[in-house]
Amino acid sequence: MSPEVFKYAQMLTGGIQLPPQFQQLNTDKLTQQFQQSQSLIPPYFAITRASFLHKIKNLACPFIVKQWSRSVPEGQTCSPIDNPNAPELYTPLVFTFIFMLITSLIKGAEKGFSMDFLYICILKFICILFFEIVICKLCFSNFGIQGTYPILSLLSDFSSISFYLTIISLFSWNRALFYVSYLYCAAAAFLWTLRTLNSEQCMAQRQTQSTQIITYFLLILAAIQIILLYLLAPKCY
């Protein structure tokens, strides 16, 4: 830490001595790391109206998407504007907000809404995404797939479940419509998970002896998405 910054920090803290580890911080290195993190996040929010609608179509009907260029060459970035199959966080974030809003309205109609309920829903959703990402990173690392699944990309893949939850919640007022929408969204979410996690670039780095294990693991992940759809979707019928 430079003497000027250290002096200013002491002035703000009333002359309190800062711990040695804070005095030895390399501000240039911290600035560089911060700038690198800034360059990683914006591409996941690069989107236009056309690419947003295209992404919704891909989520709603993943079985009709013929061109599935999910992988990106090493050292290159792929904007969701140019490739709607590329991972992005804008669409999942929008539908997460809509899903939380619909869930709150349903709970309010039942006169059971409270801020604690909303906090628990948000915390539950975040914890589920966290554990899915951790499990994926650990398992793929053990299977010999290294550095091909960025955390933000996995977050984009798994948080897309919010789209299907939104669709199901819109029909949760009727038992028949709920199960029809659930079955359709379950099939779509199953296929979406398989196609996003089974990118050609990542699977090309499989160890030969682990190919069958990875296939089963991807099927389990896709099946977990189906279970989560049923557990998280509101039911007011």
TrEMBL record:
The protein's role, per its UniProt record: Has a role in transport between endoplasmic reticulum and Golgi.
A Pfam family hit: YIF1
PANTHER family named in the record: YIP1 INTERACTING FACTOR HOMOLOG YIF1 PROTEIN, YIP1D-INTERACTING FACTOR 1, ISOFORM C
Recorded topology in the membrane: Multi-pass membrane protein
Any single GO BP term: endoplasmic reticulum to Golgi vesicle-mediated transport
Subcellular location: Endoplasmic reticulum membrane; Golgi apparatus membrane
Protein name per its UniProtKB record: Protein YIF1
GO cellular component, one term: endoplasmic reticulum membrane
Keywords of the record: Endoplasmic reticulum, Golgi apparatus, Membrane, Protein transport, Transmembrane, Transmembrane helix, Transport
